[in-house]
């Protein structure tokens, strides 16, 4: 019977009703122990739909995917409906098959999403999650990943979490479950006691318990008749506290044999009756009779093959009442029972808990459990196992190795604090130069991912110098990492120094060495040496199947000024990363892919990829990657004229990038504000922003962004009457582009030269040359349209309105197709001024798609099956089907063939 919970019940009814109607929703019930959260879950379980349920247990909080196994086991018959990579990852996580040989974090999470969607297909699904604060981290991460993406599926998720220990659950509505009011408390008391307390006693009980239902029930049950009648004062405070005291008194009154079997059940955690009975038997306990006594006392509930405590606080009371020696004996007995059952991970943890001091054999078993957790994608739980294994390890070198592995796992599991502490402890234990090099590289990568990019640069460079002779391969890798960090900071001098260090690595990774040395040469003006090195590295990239190599190829192309080629390499890297073992690093790869798509003029796709990357980066805790995606979204919003969105994204990106000294992301965010001004015709403001980028301060001083934005800077300078500034910028741009061979790079250079040519007639051939070059393969339609617009404007100002109409009309149509609204407005105005009164056309059909729909449509147009699309985008196949069901009528197509024809025509 629920008392005083009308608001909570209504919220639950709305949640389950929405799921039965096909709308996925989630709700967090947060409250103190005993507030009635579990009772509300029981209420929800009566909904007419399929129910999956899991309850967190403190003893299993470090056992990777234990809670997920409990939740999903009844639905594993649906696994074959999942895309193969997701299916294999989920089977591996649940211990049903060997885990895949790759970083499976996002694959497991996407697989959970797909499996829940399948389970909801027939009338909806309700997932009830209790004591979420004790879920193992791997299960919690996978469930929250799925919950945030359930909108198109009929899945309702109700999560109960305790106030004091509960994690922050981002982006999910919360409902506070507080104490009952006086009226509801009185009704509860009347229903749980044969002797109804006197009015004054009820009022006092409510005041002392705060209306906590559990405390009220337990307190009134512990009072004497005289206390209930008010003849004897109530104890103050009541012995309820967190509830442990009252249950502790009940436990203390039980026979010793019953207390022992309760302790076994409390230490075991999962509620598997066979394991509890087996361990108790090893302790000489007649557990069947003892369990019956505990059940009669109302402390446990035995159902079939499981035993569970009436309330988690009963478990806490039982465990707290035991001595250290009793706990050790129980955990040792459980380890034996679990070893016999083949439960190696559980056995390892119980053996470790039973061990005081260091024990090599116990440490080895726990380290093996940690490796198994890591292989399944349970990185946070692997970190806990490896760190505890290190504590138990007698030999300092082995302990240092395990702490290093724990640090890696903790970082991948989104626990940067634990990762740093493990690294620091490992450094104190070793003088092995190879291990120290690995520790330095890990430290640098932690900083580059979520910390200070300038600090990362220093850590990588110093670590590479120390490791050069002991581990030259890793040392060169670290120089590459240092170059990446320097690029993020915008430190040209560091890039030059890194290249000089790399020169001496004659026999180690010639591809990476050539790029590092070539970059340094280019930055010192030695193109005669730098260009052949970079061209030589690029010559061997056609057969590259590694995403990291393709990203380095994009760096080489960018150094040569070939922005379009750089973008092509990055897009290939993204395609490789989605189907390789780099899925765990996908948020970082997608930074580059989203930027490349945007530079290529595919703004909608660039925004869609950034939105995907942003969600994944936040899930993984990659702070600096979050800033990169926000900055890219700011640029796309600027091109589309969405001023408020642009400023919001830029502000959020700068709030991360400036304190973390990630100059690249800060400069991209600043560039977004400049291109916004330029598109809206605020030439002086745009000129000021682009000029600031070439100076110093937040968002400034990053050479790559400054050089890439030169065509924008030249246009802004000319637009506000600053031709001298435009010519100065062009001179730097010409030096950078001197070795660029691609048509797009030469087209942009010709356009800049046309802009600074004061004589109208002299500038026209340069615009015509630029348009001829734009017509080559691989160029950006946005940049080509901008050149057409500027050419048309110059023609009109030269009183050749008739000639101006075609390029202006072409520009207008392209801007409208790309959704570049401010530029379309400007082109339309110029076209009218040239004497054409053509009405504005509607944007093309693709512009009506959401980012998710656009990504799916493009993959389907490339011939990718629904299951493959789901695998690549970390979606469920039913999500793909749902979006395609909306895409077809939006685009006016009826088949995949028609969709492919339409999408490819719009490329």
Automatic annotation (TrEMBL):
PROSITE patterns noted in UniProt: HTH_LUXR_2
Recorded GO MF terms: adenylate cyclase activity; ATP binding; DNA binding
Gene3D superfamilies named in the record: Tetratricopeptide repeat domain (1.25.40.10), Winged helix-like DNA-binding domain superfamily/Winged helix DNA-binding domain (1.10.10.10)
Entry's Gene Ontology BP terms: regulation of DNA-templated transcription
Domain HTH luxR-type per the UniProt entry, residue ranges: 842-907
Coiled-coil positions: none
Domain of life: Bacteria
InterPro entries in UniProt: AAA_16, P-loop_NTPase, Sig_transdc_resp-reg_C-effctor, TPR-like_helical_dom_sf, Tscrpt_reg_LuxR_C, WH-like_DNA-bd_sf
Keyword check for ATP-binding: yes
Annotated CDD domains: LuxR_C_like
Keyword Ligase recorded: no
Pfam families documented for this protein: AAA_16, GerE
Entry GO terms, CC: cytoplasm
Keywords: ATP-binding, Nucleotide-binding
Stored PANTHER family: TESTICULAR SOLUBLE ADENYLYL CYCLASE, TRANSCRIPTIONAL ACTIVATOR DOMAIN
Protein name (record): LuxR family transcriptional regulator
